[in-house]
Write a structure and sequence with these properties.
alpha/beta; FAD/NAD(P)-binding domain; D-Amino Acid Oxidase, Chain A, domain 2; 2 domains; 6-stranded mixed beta sheet; 19 strands; 25% strand
């Protein structure tokens, strides 16, 4: 009998399984897809950054980046994040910058002229910019493969094409049923991303995590060379970055309703480009590569922050990252292993991320959501 069943073989589930196995637990991973990283992990734009406003998010990302840069398979590239700060958000971003500097993470305030040495843009309405030289991108598939390989090396078992059907707690263990078998374990960890709300219902629980579709658009190879950092216009949420000879770009649609809607929403391309061209006129004339563009799900909570840790006896959740799961998975895996091994996380206090914050009316106010 395993000590822990981890549901989901995305980057969060894989990192958690590895760290659980590292602590000597016998781990079983169940994944509904035929292979790993097929949900939000594989559809991620792959960014990692420390530029958040809440200390918890800053540290989760910072400590995860420190781990990724030691994993060759993660292919960490510190291309940087450049935030263009509108005048209306200048004071709030100053406070976030103070939080980041107090925690010792590398973030710089730049004048608009300094920022223009990295990316050309129109200055209208902007106050200044911030740049995280440690921010960048990783290969989510490579990192997930590394964690699964290490988990298996330590005795973990991975079962693909085996979705969770139901589970219930009886006599101190979770009894888990899939199409292919039944398993028992004292601990059950849900790393099920955008599907966590649905999985919770199968367990008779209300877990406020729901899917919201997001698009990532890709240009054709450009006629000019570039090495742009991941650049965000905080006023509109438009972002872009270099990816080889292409540019990737996007913008979250605030009107996108929750739900498992599939396929590209090409109607959102127009509003996305409108916001982008207003700030970055050099984008005009570039060709879109529809085949290289893609869509995926954000796993969203009411306050756009994850739910972490025990939600009831023997049951843990690590999901709801609202777009920053890849950024924080490495550290979250360690924290979930500590929850099981010690009864609570030790490396970092995750109290503000626990499910009960919603029941108690204490949502987390993170201003760095893109």
């Amino acid at each position: 009998m395993p000590d822990a069943v981890v549901v989901g073989a995305g980057i969060v589930g894989a990192a958690s399984a590895y760290r659980l196995a590292e602590k000597g637990l016998k781990v079983l991973i169940l994944e509904k897809e035929a292979t790993y990283a097929q949900g939000s992990t594989g559809k991620s734009a792959a960014g990692v950054r420390v530029q958040f406003s809440e200390p918890l998010n800053v540290l989760l990302s910072y400590r995860s980046i420190l781990e990724y840069r030691e994993i060759p398979e993660a292919a960490y590239r510190p291309i940087g994040y450049l935030f263009l700060v509108p005048e209306a958000q200048a004071e709030a971003q100053e406070e976030a910058l103070r939080v980041q500097k107090a925690l010792g993470v590398p973030v710089e305030r730049l004048s608009l002229e300094e920022a223009k040495t990295k990316v050309p843009f129109r200055e209208e309405g902007l106050a200044y910019a911030t740049f995280g030289p440690m921010d960048g991108v990783i290969d989510p598939h490579g990192a997930t493969a590394f964690y699964l390989r290490e988990a298996r090396r330590l005795g973990a078992e991975v079962r693909f094409s085996e979705p969770l059907l139901r589970a219930e707690r009886r006599e101190g263990v979770w009894r888990v049923e899939t199409l292919k078998g039944r398993y028992e374990a004292p601990y059950l960890l849900l790393c099920t991303g955008a599907w966590t709300g649905e999985v919770g219902k199968a367990l008779g629980l209300e877990i406020p995590i729901y899917p919201v579709r997001r698009m990532v658009f890709a240009t054709a190879p450009t006629p000019f060379p570039h090495a742009f950092p991941l650049t965000v216009d905080l006023g509109t949420g438009f972002y872009f970055r270099s990816e080889g000879s292409r540019l990737l770009f996007g913008r979250s649609n605030p009107e996108e309703p929750p739900g498992f809607r599939e396929g590209m929403d090409w109607r959102w391309l127009g509003p996305t480009l409108e916001a982008g061209l207003a700030r970055f006129p050099f984008l005009e004339g570039l060709f879109l590569d529809r085949k290289a563009s893609w869509w995926g799900y954000y796993e969203v909570t009411p306050d756009h922050n994850p739910i972490l840790g025990f939600v009831e006896e023997g049951l843990l959740v690590a999901a709801g990252f609202s777009g920053h799961g890849v950024q924080q998975a490495a550290m979250v895996g360690r924290l979930m292993a500590e929850e099981v091994a010690f009864g609570q996380a030790r490396s970092q206090d995750i109290t503000p991320f626990r499910l009960r914050r919603f029941r108690e009316g204490r949502p987390l106010q993170e201003r760095g959501i893109v």
